[in-house]
Amino acid sequence: MKPILTALLLVLSIAAIAQYSIHGKVVDDKTKKPLEGVSVFLANTTAGTVTNDKGEFQLKYTKPGKCELVVTSLNYENYVEWVQMNQTADPLIVNLKPTVNILKEVVVEPYDQNGWEKWGSSFESYFIGTPQLSKKCILKNPEVVKFRYNSNTNKLRAFSDDKLIFENKDLGYSIIYLLTRFEIDFNTNTFSYGGYPLFKELKPRNAREAVRWNQLRSNVYKGSLRNFVRSLYFNQLTKDGFEVREVKWISDGEKHRVKNVLKQVHDNEGIASSLKTNTDSMDYYVKVKRLADNENKLMLDHVVPRDSIIVTNTNDPNSKTLYFSDYLQVVFLNKRVPLGFAKTLPAYRSNEFIRSEINLRFNNPVFIYPNGNYYNGLDLIIEGYWVWSEKVSTMLPSDYTVSNL
Fold first, then answer.
1. Picking from 109-118, 236-245, 320-329, 357-366, which range would have the lowest pLDDT averaged per residue?
2. What is the DSSP letter of 124?
3. Among 15, 211, 293, 393, fewest CB within 10 Å belongs to which?
């Protein structure tokens, strides 16, 4: 991260004056009575509060754009809504529904009584991070996590009726996490998780610890998924050190077709001369032929122009639409693969640049925002380095910026 210049500090102090807010009232859906002490926060940020005795709340935020508003209270269903942060927002009325019926279902639905003893290490590795990442990120209340393993599908689910409380002494945050999804498929070695974290700054013991936290936050941010999304949004991939290349999915049928074409090349001079005039085609055929039987991904050499995968969202001027076919490989040229990650996969070496792959699972676009948030997130599938690195122990709030250093 580049040092902050004195001239930049003046700009930042002026920009900090502008604040965006959202305010409203939380009431019981049936009685319409105001609810006091309800938690209200913007997911993935440090902005959170509780309602007063009139059920009222106000949240202030320093960045425009869309955020997920989360309203949660014991014995009520969670309320989640994407809201537009601006300076003239109308009051929001939140009707919370009692969870009487939901609680009955949870009681009936079985879970493993010794779940943490059996599955706690898997939960920590997949969700919090491997030991190299999570030594100082502690789940303070592991007893609230419940597990359910399905031997027929070989899948593990984790859930909680309470908030998870983390303390990350590496990055200087406490995190309250409302877990909504956690599943590991041991057959495919894939996993997915989702939820709504609220960050709170820890108080450093001294100036030295404050500097250390800032340095570690900077290192975590560089090359992260949030860093990439922001770079995409602001059209500064090259400046920030990212390269994006297209990766095509090559079916077994396509492999067979290519082999037939190359066979004809040797038997037919006309086809051979035709292919020689199209170097891209010949290069493509040769690369496909070199794929192993269990390989189906082919990386193309050209760097993908940012404007070919990003368009302006006409329905929301604060967001942009990310859409592409097949896969994209994202390489970050300012960081080498950590030894801890290189040990997990033979295909990676500790001296090469970190790289990840993304694809759109259902061929649906993803909408990205200037703070690094994205909508339709379950449609965005990641592989490679980010699978290892994007964990609770490396989470930063969306209002984190390089100006924090």
1. 109-118
2. I
3. 293
Write down the pLDDT at residue 271: 58
**Residue 33 dihedral angles phi and psi, to the nearest 5°:** -80, 145
- As a whole number of angstroms, the distance between CA 358 and CA 386 comes to 9
Round to whole Å and give the CA distance between 24 and 38: 12
Distance CA 235, CA 319 (A): 13
Contact 62, 399 (CB under 8 A): yes
Instruction: State how far the Cα of 237 lies from the Cα of 384, in Å rounded to an integer.
Output: 19
CA angle at 393 for the pair 190 and 375, rounded to the nearest 5°: 60
Residue 164 DSSP SS3? strand
Sign of CA dihedral 223, 366, 321, 399: negative
Task: State the Cα–Cα distance between residues 254 and 47, nearest whole angstrom.
Answer: 51
Which structure tokens are listed for 271? Answer: 């086809």
Q: How far apart are the C-alpha atoms of 402 and 161, rounded to whole Å?
A: 35
Residue 296 to residue 306: CA distance in whole angstroms: 25
**Among 177, 104, 143, CA closest to 391:** 177
Determine which of 19-23, 104-108, 371-375, 397-401 has the lowest per-residue pLDDT on average. Answer: 104-108
CA distance 371 to 398: 6
* 57 Rama sector, left if φ>0, alpha if ψ -120 to 50, beta otherwise: beta
Query: Tokens at residue 300, please?
Result: 């193309």
Distance CA 330, CA 384 (A): 10
307: left (phi over 0), alpha (psi -120 to 50) or beta: alpha
Residue 375 pLDDT: 82
Residue 178, burial from CB neighbour count under 10 angstroms (0-12, 13-18, 19+): buried
Assign residue 239 a region: left if phi > 0, alpha if psi is -120 to 50, beta otherwise? alpha
- Strands 92-96 vs 20-28: parallel, antiparallel or unpaired: parallel
What SS3 class is residue 8?
helix
Residue with structure tokens 């590496």? 170
**Maximum CA pair distance of the chain?**
86
pLDDT tens, 76-104? 999 999 887 765 668 899 999 998 654 44
Helix axes 279-290, 252-267, angle to 10 degrees: 120
Residue partners of 98: CB distance under 8 A and separation at least 6: 28, 29, 30, 75, 76, 77
